[in-house]
Amino acid sequence: MAELPESEPRIYSVGKVACGILTHVLCVVFTVLITVLAKPGTSLFSWHPFLMTLAFSLFMTEAVLLFSPHCSPIRKLSHKTKGRVHWILQCLCASCATLGLASIFYNKHLNGKPHFASWHGLVGLGTLCVVGVQSLAALPLLYHSLAKGWSLAKLKRYHAASGLVTYLLGSVSLLLGICSVWFTGTVGGYTWYLAALCPALSTLVIMSQVSNTYMAKKRLVS
């Protein structure tokens, strides 16, 4: 028999709202920081950190936060509308990441440097591939006629689980990026640690949101 979810203590709800708002702020601050440091347009390489940060820090984070019951900017809209906006943001994420990869690939080609010779490059390439697959796999959730023979509830769970893995890969790629020679040579001291905290803290909030939502649904049907 399904059980009604127990009401949360007020301080717990306030904490979730605060964490959600903080995540919105962190992903914007981190994106602005990288934009200022990279100065997109000043060189071919400058587009790589800018576009990759725009993809994995801003678009991907905001795409997931759309479904947050505590801090979604479109909380009052229907779940179907949220799903479409989520898919659009993910497509923007994939587009920016593809352009970011193209810029660094061509830059290395011009300078005669090896491609994907670091963990940052390999994880970034893998993340982009997973983002593309994840976006295509989400189509049956938008157009239910494509999900013939599949349970939509199971597809949503699979999508949430694989989406969390995708987000983790994106965050690892960002963290490896701020360990690169370019970033460590541009900033230092406390700025580097503060920059590293942005994707790290955002990841913890996203993990909590996805896992808590899944656990809540499991309790409702148990």
TrEMBL record:
* Keywords from the named record: Electron transport, Heme, Iron, Membrane, Metal-binding, Transmembrane, Transmembrane helix, Transport
This protein is called ascorbate ferrireductase (transmembrane)
Gene encoding the protein: cyb561d2
Q: Where is the Cytochrome b561 domain?
A: 15-217
Query: Where is this protein localized, as stated in its record?
Result: Membrane
- What topology in the membrane does the UniProt record assign? Multi-pass membrane protein
- Which Gene Ontology CC terms are recorded? endoplasmic reticulum; membrane
Give the highest taxon in the source lineage.
Eukaryota
